[in-house]
Design a protein that fits this description.
The chain is an alpha+beta fold and 132 residues long. It has four helices and four strands. The protein has two domains: 37 residues; 80 residues, Alpha-Beta Plaits (2-Layer Sandwich). The longest helix is centred in the first third of the chain and has 18 residues. It starts with 11 loop residues before the first helix and ends with a strand. The structure holds nickel (II) ion.
Length: 132
């Protein structure tokens, strides 16, 4: 990919915010920070669109956490048209790994994944999507 240089004019407050972003994320320079922000915007746009996509929500959670199995089950039944299959693996005494295959509009899958991943007791969660 070829690199293009361009000048940027920013208010001092915005520049301070940008420098903070550079420091917090340990970017070597402002260009890297701007690149990262634009990429994030691209991903966000892709994930919020009406495109039909397929993917998987993968979560690891502690099934001893109060009501988590019931809540997870309720959410999945509520969004049943989006869900193709669910694989549940008992990892150890307390942890479960669930892989939920999904298909639908990107923004609907993103909302569904957010609901699941933010449940109390979920250690890790990730949604991967690809165009169908
Ligand atoms: Ni289990």
């Amino acid at each position: 990919m070829s690199v293009v240089r361009f000048g940027v004019s920013l208010e001092t407050e915005i520049m301070s915010e940008l420098d903070e972003y550079v420091n917090v994320n340990r970017f070597p320079n402002r260009s890297q920070a701007i690149r990262s922000l634009v990429e994030k915007y691209g991903v966000e746009k892709k994930w919020q669109c009406d495109n039909e996509v397929a993917g998987a929500i993968v979560v690891v959670y502690n099934h001893h956490k109060r009501d988590i199995n019931t809540k997870l089950n309720d959410i999945q039944h509520h969004h049943q048209p989006l869900i193709l299959s669910v694989q549940h693996v008992h990892l150890d005494h307390e942890n479960c790994l669930e892989t939920i295959a999904v298909k639908g509009k990107a923004k609907e899958l993103t909302q569904l994944a957010d609901k699941i991943i933010t449940l109390k007791g979920v250690h890790h969660g990730k949604l991967v999507m690809t165009r169908t």
